[in-house]
C-alpha cells in the first residue's frame, strides 16, 4: 500500500507519485530544462534546480528516446526505469534511518519511451565528499582526512547492514554537511542499486574499494586501515582480517583505475562533455567541444589543395601548419590509404584513429602531448578514403635532439635537470604500460618552463597502451633514445639517466637484463639525429666502450 504522505496523479503524459503538498509540481514541464537553473545536460537527462513555493528543489528529467533500443527495453523490463528505482531506493533508505536527500516526486512516462522526472529537496550548504577531501589532502598532518574517515566508515557500514548495494558508490555520490565533529554524509544517485541478502565478504570489500578509489591518491594505506577498523566497529563485528582486506582493496583499486582510464580514453569517440561526434555527407568528425566544424573543414580543404606551411611529407602522411586566430594548428593527413589501411580504418584502427585515441589516453594519464582538436574520416561509398588528424602545434617546444644541440652547445648548465625530467617521463610511461614504437629524439618535444622542462610525445600513431611494457620493449625504447641523442650527452650523463629511469619505471629488478638488451642493440651502431641544418651522424664506438667496457 502507498503511504499516506504520497498520492498518485496523472499529468502531461506522466504517471506521478507525489508527496503531499507538492501536487502543483505535476503542472510544470521539466523536459526541456527551460524552468531550471544551473542546468547540466547530457544525452540521457537534464538536471538542475527549481524554486517552488519558496523552496529549492533538485530536478532530474530523463529524455524521451528517439529510437527503439532492444537492450534498453530489456533492461527496463527487468529492472524498471532508473527514476523509479531511485525513488524506491530513496524511500527504502529513509525508512532505515540512513541519510539521503528527501525525495519529493517521481513521474514516469510510457514504458517504451523512457521519459521520466524525479525531484528531491535540496540539501543546503552541502558539498561533494570528493571535493572536500581534495581540499583537505594538502594537509601534511592528515587531520582533515582523519575527520572524514569516521562518517565515511559509519555510512558505509549502515548501508551494508541494511543490505543495500550502491553500485556506483564513489565520493562524488556522497554529500557532506556540517562541520567539525558534526559532519554528516548523505548518499545520492541511487538508481544503480540492489538489495542482496547480505553485504559481506568480497562484495562489501569491493564496495569499500570503489569509494576508496574515488578518493585516490589522497587516501593512503593508513587511512584505509583506519576506515576498515571503524567500519567493523560500526557494524559491531570482528570478522575482517585487516591486512588481507587492505591487500584485496588495493588490488581492486588498481583494476578500477585501469578501467577508468580506458573508459575516459574512449570518450573521445563519443558525444561527451569534452567531445562531440558529427556525421554528415560521407564524413565522420570527432572533435573537441568548442572547435568550429566549418573552420575545421575549411582548413582540411586548404590542406588537400596543398595549402599551409609544409612540415613533413613521406609515403605515409603529410603534415602542414595553419593559423587559427593566432594559434598554430597542425594537420596530419593520411590521403593515400592502401587496401589494408582502409580495412583498419573501417574498424577504427587506422593511424589517424590511433593518434586521436593516443592523444586522449596520454592526457588522461597525466602526460603532455599537443592538444588534439579533431579527427576527420572521409568516406566514399562507405569506405574510408582519407583521414585527417588535427592538433595544436608543438611550438614553441622543439624536438629533443635539436633542443640539446642548441641548449648545451656552449654551456652544460641545466643538462642534469633535463635528463632527470626525461628519465622520469620515460620511466613513468613504461610503468603505466605506455609504449611508443619509435621513441627517437625527433618524436619527443621539449620546452623550458620556469626552472624545469616540459616533455611531449609526438607522432602518436606509434603509441600503444598495454598491461605492461616488457624488458625487450623497454630496451628498444632506451636504445632508440641512445642512438638519437647527440654525443654532447656523454657516458656519465647516460649512466645517470639510466639509473633515474629505473627508479621511475620501478625496473631495478630487471637492471641487468635491460642493460644486456640495450648493449646488444646499440653495439656497432652510429648515432643519428637531426640538427637545424639537417641529419647528423656521429661515431658511437668510444661512447659504447666507455659505457659497456668493450667493443
From TrEMBL:
Residue span(s) of domain Protein kinase: 294-551
InterPro entries the UniProt entry points to: Kinase-like_dom_sf, Prot_kinase_dom
Record-level Gene Ontology MF annotations: ATP binding; protein kinase activity
Superkingdom of origin organism: Bacteria
Name by which UniProt lists this protein: Protein kinase domain-containing protein
Source organism of this protein record: Candidatus Zymogenus saltonus
